[in-house]
């Protein structure tokens, strides 16, 4: 159970990790693209908010249903079609934080046995609730690192301008 508790702590900290790494980000930096196929900070934050919403549905489905189907989605299509490049990333950040905290409140009191419940992901196959918790925990951490890299490169560009 200690491993689950530690993972839940990391999951919860994700709600504060992202605001820390984007502190001070504004217009030009939020929209800076380090390469044509790499998202901007704005797009990453919008993606995190939508992904956490999908995660909320997946967590609840696995808890409420027997081996539900967990449908994959095309994150790039979402970014394009939901206009991540124009969305208010501060509002998306608020959504991410709120949903992450609600997800944590759902998961934190569960018995260890609940984390063995399964769903059938359309791309990954059988996943447990623990797998989903790990995926979403690492997801925010990975994007925090990506944001740090973008900010570093943006500052380097500005320093040489």
CATH architecture label name: Up-down Bundle
Helix/strand order, N-terminal first: HHHEHHEEH
Class by SSE composition: mainly alpha
- Helical content stands at 55-70%
Q: Please tell me how large the radius of gyration is.
A: 17 Å
Largest sheet: 3 strands, mixed
- CATH topology annotation: Four Helix Bundle (Hemerythrin (Met), subunit A)
Supply the number of structural domains.
Answer: 1
Average pLDDT over all residues: 96
How many extended strands? Answer: 3
Percent of residues in β-strands: 5-15%
Low-confidence stretches: none
Please tell me about this protein's structure.
This protein has 161 residues and is mainly alpha-helical. The protein has one domain (2-159): dinb family like domain (Four Helix Bundle (Hemerythrin (Met), subunit A)). The protein has six helices and three strands; from the N terminus they run H-H-H-E-H-H-E-E-H. Strands 1-2-3 form a three-stranded mixed sheet. Strand 2 (118-121) and strand 3 (125-128) form a beta hairpin. Helix 1 (2-21) runs antiparallel to helix 5 (89-107), helix 1 packs parallel to helix 6 (129-159) and helix 3 packs parallel to helix 5 (89-107).
């Amino acid at each position: 159970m200690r491993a689950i508790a530690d993972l839940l702590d990391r999951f919860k900290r994700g709600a504060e990790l992202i605001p820390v790494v984007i502190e001070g980000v504004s217009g030009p930096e939020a929209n800076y693209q380090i390469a044509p196929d790499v998202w901007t900070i704005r797009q990453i934050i919008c993606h995190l908010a939508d992904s956490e919403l999908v995660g909320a549905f997946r967590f609840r489905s696995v808890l409420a249903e027997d081996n539900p189907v967990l449908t994959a989605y095309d994150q790039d299509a979402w970014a394009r079609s939901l206009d991540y490049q124009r969305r208010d990333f501060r509002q998306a950040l608020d959504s991410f934080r709120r949903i992450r905290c609600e997800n944590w409140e759902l998961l934190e009191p569960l018995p260890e046995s609940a984390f063995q419940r399964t769903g059938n992901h359309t791309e990954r196959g059988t996943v447990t609730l623990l797998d989903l918790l790990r995926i979403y925990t690492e997801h925010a951490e990975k994007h925090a690192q990506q944001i740090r890299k973008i900010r570093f490169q943006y500052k380097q560009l500005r320093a040489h301008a």
